[in-house]
Amino acid sequence: MAETLLYLTLGTNDLDHAARFYDAALAPLGLIRRATERTEIGYGLPGDRRARIWVTLPFDGHPATVGNGSMPALVAPDQAAVKAFHAAALAQAGTDEGAPGYRPHGPAFYAAYVRDPDGNKLSAVHEG
Questions:
Q1: 83-108 pLDDT, tens per residue?
Q2: Across the chain, how many H-helices and E-strands are there?
Q3: Which of 7, 46, 94, 112 has the fewest Cβ atoms within 10 angstroms?
Q4: Predicted local confidence at residue 5, as pLDDT
Q5: What are phi and psi of 76, to 5 degrees?
Q6: Can you give the C-alpha Rg of the chain in angstroms?
C-alpha cells in the first residue's frame, strides 16, 4: 500500500461473511487481517504499522450501500496473485466483474475485477 494512503473503508452488512471473503481474497495479495473488532476488521501488509483496509458495519447503523463508481485497486505481486485473488473471491460468494487479463490501461496492466458479497467492487492489478 502506498504511504499516501492512510486507510480505506468498505461497508458491510454481515461482518462474519465479509471476514471469510476478505481473508481469502486478500491473502494472494499479501494482505493479512491485522485487527478484529466487534464492528470492523482491518487488513494490511505484515510489516505495516497499521491496517490500511477496513471492512466495517456502518457507524450510523443504517445498511451499508455501495458507492457507484468507487473501486479500490490493490497491488498484486504477479499475475498468479491476480488469478488467485479472483478465484478466492468467487469461491467466497464474490461475483465476477472481469476475469484476469490484460486491460487497455497500459501495455502491462494485468487485472481482475470482483464484487464482494455486499456489492463493493474491487480490483487486483499487476503492472510488470
A1: 999 999 999 999 999 999 999 998 99
A2: 2, 8
A3: 46
A4: 72
A5: -110, 140
A6: 14
Q: Tally the C-alpha atoms within 13 A of residue 88's C-alpha that lie toward its C-beta.
A: 21
Cell 461475483 sits on residue: 95
The answer to whether the CB of 8 falls within 8 A of the CB of 2 is no
Average pLDDT of the chain to the nearest whole number: 95
Neighbours of 118 (CB within 10 A): 18
- The H-or-E segment that residue 54 falls in is strand 53-56
- Give, in order, the Cα–Cα distances in Å from 63 to each of 2, 25, 29, 37, 91: 30, 23, 28, 18, 24
What nine digits make up the cell of 82?
491476480
User: Phi and psi for 41 in degrees, rounded to 5?
Assistant: -130, 145
- Of the pLDDT bands very low, low, confident and very high (cuts 50, 70, 90), residue 68 is confident
